[in-house]
Design brief:
3-stranded antiparallel β-sheet; alpha/beta; 11 helices; 20% strand; 422 residues; globular
């Protein structure tokens, strides 16, 4: 056999050996449903559920969703206090393969176990159980170095397909099951392209709810939507932020004794590291190439960046959209609203320094989680007697009167300080 043919065959074998299969990883209930921490007296129990989606955003196995809904309903029925359901949609280079020790699935399982311990310390106001739901898709197609880097743009296109009707159905059914009990909570989160999936799926739904019932208030989408280093474009984000500003959308806290107060924290939170090369360099490179034949408007007015700039940059690297910045100073994590920020809405876009998040995947470290928890606690997310509502005070809602006065800003005090890890 010619040497050149042998080399070709050897190369092909290497490539094939590095391929990540397009398959369902967890086919049995005891694989996709597991008890991380048993629920006992005085201990907050934790369950992990895995729901897998294919290349086109279709469920691999609807039983995964149905069994997860049944689990949430059972935990809601059994718990003395409401529960918290925490969903996580992973990003690039990850999937639902439990055999991988270094993966987002492993890190999310460990993070959920740590959350249970923190809830126990909070006492009787905290949820009594945690159901962690891992929403998985084929974020990895190869394990070979260098080649896996080249998959970024292909996987981003796949992530846009995963932002699908089945994904919306899954999220809405999970939140409905969670919030069937008034004192239960749901937090929806995603990393990287998982942030893209969640934002594309849920932001239009929130927009529709505000249009139809924003004047009386909206409470039943999620208690919080969080994206970490999201691979999501600034133009779509600008349109959403512009809607929130024009229609005076604000957040408020409503308690079990019917008191209402302005919410000091966000309804949506996006955190991006200034040191994230994936969203700061790779993302615009692919977007600029992908939009090479797109015709953009040259001027949006009001000092708004050009459409071409917004469309080709990730939201967390666009100064015009950033609402807050966070950094470490003398061992403490500082969080401040950007003075005069265009984005003064309840959708916080926070850019953090490298000593809080050193790269694209560094979202489970102590400092990052200290900041994350601090922001969640602003709206008393883990108190069962408090719910976050969203109101729309200007004319976007159906039948709402036109009001000439601007809505009060939902901005919290300018500075928040969290003790960091030196």
């Amino acid at each position: 056999m010619p040497r050149s043919l042998l080399l070709i065959l050897a190369s092909a074998c290497c490539l094939l050996s590095g391929c990540v299969a397009n398959t369902q990883y967890n086919t049995l209930p005891d694989q996709y449903l597991s008890e991380v921490i048993p629920a006992t007296d005085g201990t907050v129990g934790v369950d992990l559920a895995i729901i897998e989606f294919d290349e086109f955003g279709m469920l691999w196995d609807r039983d995964q969703l149905e069994d997860t809904i049944e689990l949430i309903a059972q935990r809601n029925a059994d718990a003395e206090r409401g529960i918290v359901v925490f969903t996580y949609t992973h990003g690039w280079m990850n999937n639902a393969d439990q055999s991988r020790e270094e993966s987002d699935l492993t890190r999310f399982r460990d993070w959920s176990a740590g959350l249970a311990g923190r809830l126990e310390a909070q006492g009787e106001s905290a949820p009594g159980h945690v159901v962690a739901v891992y929403l998985a898709w084929r974020g990895a197609t190869t394990r070979l170095p260098l080649l896996n880097t080249a998959t970024f743009w292909d996987r981003r296109r796949t992530a846009e397909r995963v932002a699908s009707y089945p994904m919306l159905e899954t999220l809405i059914r999970i939140k409905t099951a969670a919030q069937s009990r008034p004192d239960s909570k749901i937090i929806v989160s995603g990393h990287s392209m998982g942030g893209l999936i969640l934002t594309k799926t849920l932001a239009p739904s929130l927009n529709a709810l505000l249009l139809h019932q924003g004047e009386t208030g909206v409470s039943k989408l999620t208690n919080m939507l969080v994206t970490h280093n999201p691979a999501f474009d600034g133009l779509s984000t600008y349109q959403f932020v512009d809607y929130l500003k024009r229609n005076g959308v604000t957040a408020e806290l409503r308690t079990a004794d019917e008191t209402v107060e302005p919410a000091p924290g966000p309804i949506m939170l996006s955190i991006t590291s200034e040191a994230d090369w994936v969203t700061s360099l790779a993302y615009p490179a692919g977007q600029i190439l992908g939009h090479r034949s797109t015709n953009f408007r040259s001027d949006l007015g009001n000092d708004t960046p050009k459409q071409s700039y917004l469309a080709t940059r990730a939201l967390g690297h666009i100064d015009h959209l950033i609402s807050h910045r966070a950094w470490v100073e003398d061992g403490e994590i500082k969080l401040e609203r950007v003075p005069g920020a265009y984005n003064d809405t309840p959708y916080w876009i926070v850019q953090v320094s490298a000593d809080i998040c050193k790269d694209h995947g560094d979202i489970f470290n102590d400092r990052y989680n200290a900041l994350y928890r601090r922001i969640l606690h602003l709206n008393r997310i883990f108190e069962t007697g408090v719910q976050t509502w969203v109101r729309q005070d200007r004319p976007g809602s159906v039948g709402a009167p036109i009001r000439s006065q601007p809505a009060e800003s939902s901005a919290p005090p300018d500075t928040h300080t969290t003790k960091g890890t030196k």
